[in-house]
Amino acid sequence: MNQTPYFRSRWFEDIPVGEFHVFGSHTFAEKEMIDFGKKYAPQAYHTDPEAALDTHYRGLVASGWHICAIWMKQMVSYMERYATGVRDGRRNGAGVGFQKMQWHQPVRPGHTLTFTYEIIQKLDKTIKNKWGIIRSRNEAYNQNGELVFSFEIDILAELNPAKT
Amino acid sequence: MHYWEDIQAGQSLATKPIHLSQQDILEFAAEFDPQPFHLNLEAGNESIFGGLCASGWQVCALMMKMLADSLNQHEIATVGSPGVEQLRWLKPVYAEDTLNCQIDVISLDGGKKDYGLAYLNIDVFNQNQTKVVTLITPIMIAKRKGSA
Predict the structure, then answer these.
(1) Which of A72, A99, A156 is opposite residue B33, by nearest beta carbon?
(2) What is the pTM of this model?
(3) Of the ranges A9-23, A75-89, A141-155, B16-30, which one carries the lowest mean pLDDT score?
(4) Does residue B108 surpass a pLDDT of 50?
(5) What is the mean pLDDT of residues B1-19?
(6) What average pLDDT does the segment A29-43 reach?
(7) Is residue A107 part of a domain?
(8) CATH code at A30?
(9) Does residue A77 lie within any of the structural domains?
(10) Chain B residue closest to A97 (CA)?
(11) For residue A2, is it within any domain?
């Protein structure tokens, strides 16, 4: 059982660099890949299993932005599971941006990704004197243990008003 | 069809605007990003965003749609992307906003045998010409057969 307090119930000051979590996994079904592709990434290798065979990828692959959306879904679900009554969505959460995003390997129908994050830095910068910025390194591995996706994201965490 | 050899630094790609309804925001949030400030008007108003706003990932997905449509329309032989160097969510995107992109090729890299890279700077604007997202991403573009 993971005893780490709900990410969002903590103040910026209470979030430790080095914290590491395996926070979810997801198996990509062909249909959801095609649905996402048709709506947001209309390229044959994301939308048409037959036509995809003649492309660079030699088959259907998930859009990189679909992988991002699933990352987010897993992250929210994980945070909800460890929520202890904090659901107002205020003391946390908004993303500032990300960097070093890499789609290392194609994700194909039936592939299962497992997502991890590690808090790597608390930036030396505050926003509106109310928010600090937490930087985490996020990775996803497929069912063969290969790294398929990684990035660093910067999100806001509220400063403890008692300390500012 | 246009291949990597046909692309030039400094070139721009026009995109077609996309309008975002409240329903679009709620549907994407319910599926991928069910946080209160993306699902609920009241929670949105009380949040740092000051209103119900779209998931940042929805804005990314819509940027991808505009980019893909533009590449398809210009018949550019793209084969995907290895990643994103950097992206910043500068301003919230709200219901009934209309987004459009400014896409500029900033540099080229010969990359691999079958494809080269074109580094794009993409700025996403709302209907008030406020920049809401900015990113730098390399895209892979097939080389002309036999040129490698």
Answers:
(1) A72
(2) 0.93
(3) A75-89
(4) yes
(5) 96
(6) 98
(7) yes
(8) 3.10.129.10
(9) yes
(10) B88
(11) no
Three-state SS at A39: helix
pLDDT range class, residue A9, cuts 50, 70, 90? low
Q: Mean pLDDT, to the nearest integer, of B46-51?
A: 79
CA–CA distance, B148 with B144 (Å, rounded to integer): 8
When divided into structural domains, chain A yields a total of 1
Beta strands in chain A (DSSP E): 20-27, 95-103, 112-127, 131-141, 147-158
* A6 confidence band (pLDDT: 50, 70, 90): very low
Q: What angle do CA B128, B130, B134 make, to 5 degrees?
A: 145
* Residue contact B82–A98, C-beta within 8 A: no
A6 vs B: CB within 8 A: no
Task: Find out whether B75 and B65 touch, Cβ atoms under 8 Å.
Answer: no
Which domains, from first to last, does chain B contain? Answer: 4-19+54-142 (3.10.129.10)
Per-residue model confidence (pLDDT) at position A161: 83
Amino acid at A142: N
Taking the C-alpha atoms of residue B145 and residue A2, their distance in angstroms, rounded to an integer, is: 54
* Helix, strand counts (H, E) of chain B: 4, 6
CA distance, residue A29 to nearest chain B CA (Å): 15
3-state DSSP assignment of residue A72: helix
Both tokens of B72, joined, read 């398809």
The span from the CA of A58 to the CA of B80, in Å, is 13
